[in-house]
Design a protein that fits this description.
alpha+beta, 9 helices
């Protein structure tokens, strides 16, 4: 568990620092002054000023921050005219939009880099059917071992895990599956069958029948598909939440992630260090892309909430009242804190 906790902090720190560096790099590119760049939270352990930015390492190895000059000045009653040209409020609305988007973009880029390493060293799983279960929905629909799944419900399929994703996220809805058999392309519609034992629906397909190493160009292509898989998984999970298929007990925070890290370490350890590292990279890909998407949700205090306010500003042609914007952000922050406390309590009661 100690190894898992340390690994969690390393993974989380890399992802969060990458996110904040995205904000930092785009802000600097647009001439916005960054007064402080924090790694971690809490009391200051070390700092070094370079140029206009004070780079700080803080006690708690979680989180980070990128603080722009004048970001809160308007809410504090300082007029825009009193700030110099490098203050955040003086930047154009599209420069501020780009700065807000810089963090999530860096999370997607990090996820792609992680996926690139995974595919380069371990190859990828093609959507070729290895086996069809007897009396399953797939067998009744006419799918056979060796068939290559190309589309499900009109969505292109590139990895076998995408087939598994559609199965895991299914609650009895019909699936339109397109597959290739030799030179023929066929399309069928099937309804997954419910398993009382597992309390879920199954298509009836077993494993990938084709796991391949990739060449240089294929590595980039399948790394993109790998990252896209986690984007799909995140959005489909959010869709299930909206549809009411997930419950409060399904939510997990840092404690839950540590448990996942520990499970990943335990399962991959018997196969050696390379397997452990690749498993952690796969988990890092998920977490980085997940963080990027969640930050883009149009919720106050998240990057997506700030982006919505900037879009409104661009449409209106003038800034929102800083006081009202501050109230909106504060309300969002309070709700996020309440959610974090609930998730932490939920994790502790669930795992301990």
């Amino acid at each position: 568990m100690i190894v898992s906790i340390i690994t969690f902090f390393i993974i989380f720190s890399v992802i969060v620092i990458g996110h904040e560096f995205g904000h930092f790099a785009i802000a600097r590119r647009n001439g916005i002054r960054v007064t402080e760049f924090d790694i971690g939270m809490g009391p200051l352990l070390w700092h070094k000023k370079r140029g206009d930015t004070d780079f700080c390492i803080r006690l708690l190895p979680v989180g980070g921050a990128c603080i722009f000059d004048g970001a809160d000045a308007l809410a504090d009653g300082v007029s825009e005219e009193e700030m110099d040209e490098h203050a955040y409020p003086r930047a154009g609305v599209f420069a501020r939009m780009a700065t807000v988007l810089g963090g999530p973009f860096m999370n997607f880029l990090l996820g792609f880099v992680f996926a690139l390493i995974i595919v380069a060293f371990s190859g990828t799983d093609l959507p070729v059917v290895y086996q069809v279960q007897k009396d399953s929905a797939a067998q009744e629909a006419g799918i056979e071992a060796g068939d290559t799944i190309t589309k499900i419900n009109g969505e292109p399929i590139h990895l076998y895990r995408e087939v598994q994703l559609f199965s895991m996220m299914n609650y009895g809805e019909p699936l339109r599956i397109t597959f290739k058999r030799g030179d023929q392309t066929k399309e069928i519609t099937l309804t997954p069958k419910y398993s009382k034992e597992d309390n879920r629906y199954y298509i009836g397909l077993v494993g990938s029948g084709s796991y391949v190493r990739t060449g240089p160009l294929q590595t980039f292509r399948y790394a993109y598909y790998e990252a896209l898989y986690w984007v799909r998984a995140t959005f489909k999970s959010l869709g299930l939440i909206v549809r009411g298929h997930f419950h409060a007990d399904d939510l997990s925070g840092p404690v839950g992630i540590v448990k996942v890290v520990d499970d990943t370490y335990t399962e991959s350890k018997p196969y050696g260090l390379p397997a452990v590292l690749l498993s952690f990279l796969s988990l890092s890909t998920l977490l980085s892309i997940n963080l990027g998407i969640m930050n883009l949700l149009p919720f106050p205090a998240l990057d997506g909430g700030r982006l919505v306010l900037l879009i409104i500003e661009a449409i209106r042609g003038k800034k929102l009242n800083p006081r009202y914007e501050g109230y909106i952000t504060m309300a969002g922050a309070m709700m996020l804190i309440a959610l974090m406390i609930f998730v932490l309590f939920n994790d502790i009661t669930k795992f301990f």
